[in-house]
Specification:
Blueprint (H helix, E strand, L loop, with lengths): L1 E11 L5 H11 L3 E7 L2 E9 H13 L6 E10 L7 E3 L20 H7 L43 H7 L21 E4 L5 E2 L4 H10 L4 E4 L4 E6 L3 H11 L8 E2 L3 H7 L4 H8 L5 E5 L16 E5 L4 H10 L3 E5 L11 H7 L6 E5 L11 E5 L2 E6 L8 E8 L3 E3 L9 E10 L9 H18 L5 E5 L5 H8 L4 E5 L1 H12 L6 E11 L5 E9 L4 E7 L2 E2 L5 H4 L1 H13 L9 H9 L1 H10 L5 E2 L2 H11 L11 H9 L11 E6 L5 E6 L1 H12 L4 H25 L5 E5 L6 H13 L3 E4 L10 H12 L2
Parallel strand pairs: 2-5, 8-14, 10-12, 11-15, 18-20, 20-21, 22-29, 24-28, 29-30
Antiparallel strand pairs: 1-3, 1-4, 2-3, 6-7, 6-14, 8-9, 9-13, 10-13, 11-12, 15-16, 17-19, 18-19, 22-23, 23-24, 25-26, 27-28
Pathway: Protein modification; [NiFe] hydrogenase maturation
Pfam families: Acylphosphatase, HypF_C, HypF_C_2, Sua5_yciO_yrdC, zf-HYPF
Organism: candidate division TA06 bacterium SM23_40
Length: about 750
């Protein structure tokens, strides 16, 4: 008996070789029909013997291309017709768009072989790609994913490329960025004197400049990088001075795994991430004696390393034979540059030369940053290679939601039902260029996925630009979500959970409904709401926001809280600055609350301890003091400082547990006065904080709280603390949820906002 079926396949099924796979599969089973891209995904009609149709369906699910991700298969029976042949049809638009967009994919092994084959017509062509690799998200303007709807529309294929494109048996069948040296994009090198190298060899000119110790702007897949020799102190120092990036770690790119292993200790899971099609920057422990400038990642145990992910990068690394800094091409506080005019305008004071190309980038997209914790990925920045793949939330909503995220490390999120489409990394929304990128990104994804936003959710902080944008939109329902509840909800959402948990949310700052700055929170929370069950004790922030940039201020505040005006005779910046600036004035500010807001922030507590231990008194990038305190800690030290735990009435009349740092401060000061090293002080602080965190969670559970704990917030990017706290909780019988698919920092809160809004809007 024969059977005819209509099949709609949803998921990541466009731009990944799915149609030619279906074509070959149907032909091998002697089935008639067709396959086509539509706004719903991929539509297939097959007709033939029932047994062969059944086997076709089985293999459709199990043997699909490696880059495809099937989320749903809808099947309907149709009347038989006379069609015996099978064909690939053109794309159609049939209504509401439900197709997904594939992230950009690193160059595949087949294309690399051609890139290195002197007899291949694409030998050393910097834009070689096929159906299995190359640009996707960064070149798409509209769906369905066809060449005229991408930035490749400017390049008309030559006869040879056109033949490949239309041959279902070819690896480049319907590869939208398909091109060759005859018809495709090309390189240009612009030297510091403004002269251009085109037809000769722009790549050779760039390599010569790099070898001469110059800084080169390189236009890649999602934007422009700044590249230079990572082994020369003078070159790295010059880049830092020009880019105004004093000490924040810089990413490096190396040619292959042999070079990675010479620089870092690499576990199998880290290796898998490095060579994956996503090609993120992976944070790994630096080897002792690694041949790399100490200025690449000052005061760090880790290096951020990535492998080449475009043909241009492969050629650049191979020809130069160098380890290259490969950091975002931007000025401080600005988004990554992604156009040729933008590079020549914004980066002239930084770069000595520009290696550019004429394929436009539709959407700027920074490199992703990730690491491995307990054998699983813990992503730090989710962008190129990951965005805009959706995350399935445990709840759905029939109204589309826009979640605007926070102020720092911003991402936004759009929803369709239970699908959360998390954006690429936008950055810190403190300057107009970054905010413009935020607005443009929202409009692009709304247009790309045809999402008519009905609900807009945002942080409670009234001065965040993301909040102001959300409240400026008309004809939508607004949902405000508390910052730390959003952190907890983001971890729940990525794990597909919606039951109450003890959310341990530690970060630098978040708007508190009680008028204080939160950041060391123990919340009993689910997706629908939360109750504050515990917190770190309040500290004053002398000078307000200046205290986040000058950790000595938090150290002074902590000492004053414990010792009053009779400070111990420590040789630290807090005591020195007290004498230099006039103690009565500072004490008076703290006493009356003048420009000294109260905070329960774990990040500010880390700042205080870092300054007291002599690790960091002033910072040049966000979180620097806390990061360097982690780096300073001797992980072999078993000692732990003591914390107190008391009970105070909360805003709603319920009791709130308060973690008191006073015992810790006495022990820490005693160690410092005895001449104890910063490495021991840092380790004892970490272990003490982990122990009191476990004790506090247990007290909450003993009072009827949940038995599952969530670790979230930027502080839990600290792998030493994360391991200690998780261990403490597990010893007490807790199930512990930690981030993996979205960052624990503010880059993940838009997902949490979306999940909370979905529950509240049902």
């Amino acid at each position: 008996m024969e059977q005819r079926l209509k099949i709609i396949v949803r998921g990541v099924v466009q731009g990944v070789g799915f149609r030619p796979f279906v074509y070959r599969l149907a032909r091998s089973h002697d089935l008639g029909g067709y396959v086509a891209n539509t706004d719903q995904g991929v539509t297939i009609e097959v007709q033939g013997e029932k047994a062969r149709v059944a086997e076709f369906l089985d293999r459709l699910r199990t043997d699909h291309p490696p880059l495809a991700e099937i989320t749903d298969v809808e099947i309907a029976e149709l009347p038989l017709n006379s069609r015996k042949a099978f064909s690939i049809e053109g794309s159609t638009s049939v209504g509401e768009e439900e197709a997904l967009v594939t992230p950009d994919v690193a160059t595949c092994d087949d294309c690399l072989r051609e890139l290195r084959d002197q007899d291949d017509r694409r030998y050393r062509y910097p834009f070689i790609n096929c159906t299995n690799c190359g640009p996707r998200f960064t070149i798409i303007a509209h769906l369905p994913y066809d060449r005229p709807r991408t930035t490749m529309r400017a390049f008309r294929m030559c006869p040879a490329c056109d033949a490949e494109y239309h041959d279902p048996a070819d690896r480049r069948f319907h590869a939208q960025p398909n091109a060759c040296p005859v018809c495709g994009p090309s390189l240009t090198y612009v030297a510091e004197d403004g002269s251009e190298v085109r037809g000769a060899d722009p790549l050779a000119a760039a390599v010569d400049a790099l070898r001469a110790g110059k800084v080169i702007a390189v236009k890649g897949l999602g934007g422009v990088h700044l590249a230079c020799d990572a082994r020369r102190d003078d070159v790295v120092a010059r880049l830092r001075a020009r880019k105004d990036r004093e000490e924040k770690p810089l990413a490096i790119m190396v040619s292959g795994m042999e070079e990675v292993e010479a620089l870092c200790e690499v576990c199998p899971e880290e290796r898998a991430l490095l060579v994956s099609p996503r090609r993120p920057i992976v944070l790994m422990r630096k080897r002792q004696g690694a041949e790399i400038s100490d200025l690449v990642a000052p005061h760090q145990k880790y290096l951020g390393v990535m492998l080449p992910y475009t043909p241009l990068h492969h050629l650049l690394l191979r020809d130069s034979g160098m380890v290259l800094i490969m950091t975002s091409g931007n000025r401080s506080e600005e988004p990554i540059v992604h156009t040729n005019p933008g590079a020549l305008d914004r980066l002239t004071s930084i770069a000595d030369g520009f290696l550019l190309h004429d394929r436009e980038i539709e959407t700027r997209c920074d490199d992703s940053v990730t690491r491995v914790w307990r054998g699983k990925e813990l992503i730090v920045r989710r962008s190129r290679g990951y965005a805009p793949l959706p995350i399935e939330m445990p709840v759905g909503c029939d109204r589309s939601i826009l979640a605007c995220g926070g102020e720092l490390k911003n991402t936004f999120c759009l929803t369709r039902g239970s699908e959360a489409i998390l954006s690429h990394h936008i950055g810190d929304l403190k300057e107009e260029p970054a905010f413009d990128s935020f607005v443009q990104g929202i409009e692009h994804l709304r247009r790309l996925f045809h999402i008519d936003v009905q609900v807009v959710t945002h942080d409670l902080h009234p001065d965040y630009l993301s909040t102001r944008y959300a409240l400026s939109l008309e004809g939508v329902r607004n949902v405000g979500v508390q910052h730390h509840h959003a952190h907890v909800a983001s971890c729940l959402a990525e794990h597909g959970r919606d039951e109450p948990v003890i959310g341990i949310s530690f970060d630098g700052a978040g708007y508190g409904p009680d008028g204080t700055i939160w950041g060391g929170e123990f919340l009993i929370a689910d997706l629908g709401g939360y109750e504050r069950a515990g917190r770190l004790a309040h500290l004053s922030m002398p000078g307000g926001d200046r205290a986040t940039e000058e950790p000595w201020r938090m150290a002074l505040s902590l000492l004053y809280r414990v010792f009053g005006e009779d400070l111990p005779p420590l040789r630290c910046a807090a005591v020195r600055e007290r004498e230099r600036r006039g103690w009565p004035v500072l004490a008076r500010m703290i006493d009356v609350g003048l420009r000294t807001p109260l905070t329960s922030s774990a990040g500010r507590l880390f700042d205080a301890v870092a300054s007291l231990a002599g690790v960091r008194d002033y910072i040049s990038y966000e979180g620097q003091a806390a990061i360097e305190l982690e780096m300073a800690a001797d992980e072999r030290e078993p000692g732990a400082y003591s914390f107190g735990l008391s009970v105070e009435p909360g805003e709603d009349g319920k009791e709130v547990l308060v973690v008191d740092p006073e015992p810790m401060v006495h022990e820490l000061v005693s160690d410092l006065l005895a001449g104890q090293e910063a490495s021991i002080v840092a380790a004892r602080f970490h272990r003490g904080l982990a122990q009191i965190t476990g004790q506090t969670a247990q007290r909450i559970r003993d009072r009827g709280g949940p038995g599952t704990a969530v670790l979230t917030g930027g502080v839990f990017q600290n792998m030493f603390l994360c391991e200690l706290v998780a261990g403490e909780l597990e010893e007490r019988g807790f199930e512990v949820l930690v981030h993996s698919r979205v960052p624990p920092n503010d880059g993940g809160i838009s997902l949490g906002q979306a999940a909370v809004a979905a529950v509240r809007s049902r």
